[in-house]
Amino acid sequence: MSTSQALSVTSLKGEVTALVVDDDKVSQVIHHHLLNILGIENHVVGNGKEAVEIHLSGKKFNLILMDRDMPVMNGIEATKKLRDMGIRSTIAGVSSHSVSQERQAFIEAGLDDYHEKPLSVAKLLSVVSKIMHKA
Amino acid sequence: MDVAQLKRQLFAYTALLFHEGFLDEQFTQLQQLQDENNPDFVVEVVSLFFDDSERLLNELAKALDQQNIDFKKVDAHVHQLKGSSSSIGAQRVQRVCIAFRNYCQDKNVEGCLKCLQQVKHEFSLVKNKLETLFNLEKQILAAGGSPPT
């Protein structure tokens, strides 16, 4: 049985929307696909500034998957900016293995959750289950 | 060769790649995301990785060829390569990237150049092996077999 077949039971179609913020194309495609399989409608942007802009345009998301290291505006700055803007969405920081101080700085910027790359189905499910409990 | 034989070959070849550390669990994760709705998912993601890596390796060679090496730039490229290689499970490439970043932090030119050669080597190895793997899958499909799950 493929993952998507197994997960069709937990389909969240229409219930949860997400924004993928990552400058790496490989990560973008994988995270986009992971979310699709869970039935989560999602949008993909390439850096923190685009994440802020899409919110300024009026769009809102239940979940934001925020990469830390990005050009133009990184994940820490973007998270701070979104929180300052009053965005209360679940923001899950996603980052490569890093020093605990860097991780702390990212979490303190306003994250609800933090996972190390690469994201897996299991990690994503644990993030999503937190949203469902929030609602 | 019949489908059953091809499948056994594919199975053995894949197992070997994992055993030799060319691929890790993350590659399995990607395979599990492939289904009838996205039958080419793994090939697409891996092809993206190949293109992206080749670009990064070129940038690295250029950056390390400068009179005054910008180690921050070099480190940024290696960080990207480390990230994407870990995303598809290319474990050996990822490992060299970790060592590479340490040399960047120490501003060790010789170490960086050595790592660049190593990472190029590991990249070409995993590229060849994945292409062989995808070829086997194609042969199975062409011989009328169902895609591996």
Could you characterize what this model shows?
The complex is a heterodimer of chains A (135) and B (149). Chain A is an alpha/beta fold and 135 residues long. Chain A contains six helices and five strands, in the order H-E-H-E-H-E-H-E-H-E-H. In chain A, helix 2 (25-37) links the parallel strand 1 (17-21) and strand 2. With 149 residues, chain B is mostly helical. Chain B is elongated and about 55 Å long. In chain B, helix 1 (3-19) runs antiparallel to helix 6 (109-142), helix 3 (41-64) packs antiparallel against helix 4 and helix 5 packs antiparallel against helix 6. Classes of the chains: A alpha/beta (135), B mainly alpha (149).
Order of helices and strands of chain B, N to C?
Answer: HHHHHH
Query: What's the Cα radius of gyration of chain A?
Result: 14 Å
Order of helices and strands of chain A: HEHEHEHEHEH
Q: State the low-pLDDT regions of chain A, or none.
A: none
The helical percent of chain A reads 40-55%
Structural class of chain B: mainly alpha
Strand order of the largest sheet of chain A: 2-1-3-4-5
Distance between the ends of chain A: 30 Å
Topology, number of strands of chain B: 0
Poorly predicted regions of chain B are none
Oligomer status: heterodimer
Tell me the greatest interface.
A-B, 20 and 24 residues
Features:
heterodimer; A: 135 residues; alpha/beta; five-stranded parallel sheet; 44% helix; globular; B: 149 residues; mainly alpha; 6 helices; 78% helix; 0% strand; elongated
